[in-house]
Amino acid sequence: MRDVGIIGLGKYLPPKSLTNKDLEKMVDTTDEWIITRTGIKERRIAPKDVACSDLATEAARSALKDANLKPEELGLIIVATITSDMQFPSTSCLLQKKLGAKNACCFDISAACTGFIYALVTAKQFISSGAYKNVLVVGAEKLTGMVDWKDRSTCVLFGDGAGACILAPSGQRKLVSEYLASDGEGSDLLKVPAGGSLLPTSFETVKNRLHFLQMQGNEVFKIAVKVMAEAADMAIKRAGLECRDIKLLIPHQANLRILMAVAKKMGLSEDRLFLNVEKYGNMSAASTAVALCEAYEENRVKQGEYVVLVAFGSGLTWGACVIKW
Ligand code: UT7
């Protein structure tokens, strides 16, 4: 089995910001409520004619540049998303076309906010087994097209963006261990009810706003704190490490209160917690991808130090992985 490491990282955030003040004009909310309850100050919004694959393409190009690779050198592309351009074909195939990565095979992963970690772990298997060499993994979301702008309990939370990384046989930023989990019993807590085979699109589904994201925020909140801390602990144990060995925890950026509670549960001080929720809100699968890229750009970690990525989301799904920088 070969070592698998990250040889390039990239991100893309659409330039336009939607601030809490802007939201005050759209729904019955306040800047103060949003900051106190979530820690979010603004989120990015992609224009109407920009799709998930466009965000993914920009992030992928910057990761390829960072890895000094050409698109043709990719053997596999995995996109983690819940906001694919269309039901099918997969966003990864659309990304392949836009990149000109003609030698890659492509598929998407649907694990909501945990999608990027599921995709990293999947890519690791293909590389360590020797099946593929250079693999592009992208977390990309255009969530602002899926939120109900009449529902103040959800529309203030989400934003658009994409993060990408190139994995290859390498000891550099090596994926050391992982832990993945799911619980379909919680599948009703966070979902888009219609548009699939259960409730195909109809006049009724549109009228009843069933194509928008729905969340039982309170329930999700409680589970998130518990299972994110557990997942991070599991991955750390599997790496043969302890919490005190971790330089930086990079969690899915859903809510500042959740992240502070996870860090507290793990006994980590705030300086060992990566946060960007204030700038971007919750970008589902793109959150951990963008956060990983920013931790890299900001030189938050030195060679030989350990990082833990951890996420939780719809499904329910959760998971973590340890990376040795
Ligand atoms: O990415 C996957 C994982 N997702 C998450 O982890 C999200 C988890 N959940 C959360 O982050 C939080 O539950 C929310 C931020 C969604 C909500 O925060 P909360 O502290 O759990 O608030 P709540 O739902 O208990 O609502 C408290 C009050 C309610 O009013 P009443 O019933 O007490 O009168 C809501 O109607 O706040 C009200 N409220 C709002 N008020 C102003 C809900 N949304 C808003 C809003 N502005 N935007």
Which helices and strands appear, and what pairs or packs with what?
Elements: E1 4-12, E2 17-19, H1 20-24, H2 31-38, E3 42-44, H3 52-67, E4 76-80, H4 91-99, E5 105-109, H5 115-128, E6 135-142, H6 152-155, E7 160-169, E8 174-182, E9 190-191, H7 203-207, E10 214-215, H8 217-238, E11 246-251, H9 256-266, H10 277-280, H11 285-297, E12 306-313, E13 317-324
Helix pairs in contact: 3-4, 8-9
The structure holds oxa(dethia)-CoA.
Residues 29, 33-34, 37-38, 113, 152-153, 156, 217-218, 220-221, 224, 254-255, 258, 282, 312-313 line the site of oxa(dethia)-CoA.
Q: How would you sum up this structure, described in words?
A:
The protein has helices at 20-24, 31-38, 52-67, 91-99, 115-128, 152-155, 203-207, 217-238, 256-266, 277-280, 285-297; strands spanning 4-12, 17-19, 42-44, 76-80, 105-109, 135-142, 160-169, 174-182, 190-191, 214-215, 246-251, 306-313, 317-324. The chain has 325 residues and is α/β, with parallel strands linked by helices. A five-stranded mixed β-sheet has the order 1-7-6-4-5, sandwiched between helices. A hairpin with a 3-residue loop joins strand 12 (306-313) and strand 13 (317-324). Helix 3 crosses helix 4 and helix 8 runs parallel beside helix 9. It is globular, with a radius of gyration of 19 Å. The two termini are 19 Å apart. The mean pLDDT is 97. Bound molecules: oxa(dethia)-CoA. The site of oxa(dethia)-CoA (UT7) has 20 residues, from helix 2, helix 6, helix 8 and strand 12.
